[in-house]
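Tokens help. Our protein:
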Amino acid sequence: MLQVENLNYASPPTVLFQRLSVIFTDLVFIYAAKECCRCVQEQKGSRDVLNRPSFVLAVLLLWNFGLLIVDHLHFQYNGFLFGILLLSVSKHLQSQHLQGALLFSILLNLKHIYLYVAPAYGVYLLRSFCFSQDNKDGSIRWMSFSPLRLLALGAIVVSVCALSFGPFIAMGQLPQVLSRLFPFKRGLCHAYWAPNIWALYNILDKILAMLGVRLKLLQEAELPRASMTGGLVQEFQHSVLPSISPSITLVCTLLSVLPAAASIWRRPRGARGFLRCLLLCALGSFMFGWHVHEKAILLAILPLSILAVESREDAGIFLILSTTGHYSLFPLIFTPAELPIKVALMLMFVIFSFIALTKLHSNSGVASLLHPLESVYLLGLIPVAIACEVIFPLSSWQQKLPFLPLLVTSVYCSMGVCYSFLRLYISMLRDEERPKQA
């Protein structure tokens, strides 16, 4: 089972070990969910469980559709990693910043994808932990800087990294490790496009190429054949639009998270402000990153659950992001036998999310958490699902255009993810303006 060259090896004991190990490590996620539920404010005097934010949050986290299928059907170990992330967030919500920093340092060395949210941690801890006091107008009080707190944070990060990378440095293997952590030769997009800005960029390139051929502005023979939808993981060139390099994605990612980091530096707004910055960093990296995997959308959906039970506006954003983000994971589970399972699981999660969050925020006086156009967009997922999951496999197009359902799913879902990203940013900017007006 542990021999790298033993490809396609399978045995009943191996499968049993894998499944039990995922279930066992999920105990970390369950404990983290419990800690997060302690951080939300309860509504006093309510006996209805759907009016209790902690209960709704527990279900949204423990019954998260995306995490369930990625770990228990697709088989991966994301549960305990997200558990450590949520546990770290809960420690910051409880003002236990050193414990939160330690947990995140461990998490970052377990899987480097959490670099996505590292800017939020760095800026927040420097601003709100190393600087212990603010002026009356909320601006930073420079004289309150604590070198001891900075040293404590530095010692935590350095010690964890030393334990993690020390053996590889001693054996001269660090370049090999870094080359595998950042495989830039894999191309801009995964074989199945993640629903981000590059999916829209790719489809625009293909549309322009087709129009160019139709209008006889381009020669079809000179264009790459199915370059971005060939199902291969490698570098490709765009046909009409400028090709995107890793450095461009890095600049775009940094520009997308910079306003969020600057916002919590100017006006920290406590741990809730940090959590919102974390979400924007996760989504910004998902939107503009290099070779982003579709499952990375869970890095934003899971923490957003905490804000969704506390804020009506965040609840609406959560419904859009979780529905589109979770549906974008459908192609990972592609066998006909699994179709009823994933449809039933997602419907249960979506129905509960809509009912519970609507009831939880019913005192706001607004009947729906979504605008009419947002509801129309989400309802559009139904015909997309029927076309991709039922009609297409029975049509002759399956042989000619095998990646068409992936393309349609990714492009449609990317519009919802982009919209959620913009709404979160607008919400953050509104929160930043409110103290000034007061």
User: Anything to note?
Assistant: The chain has 18 helices and no strands.
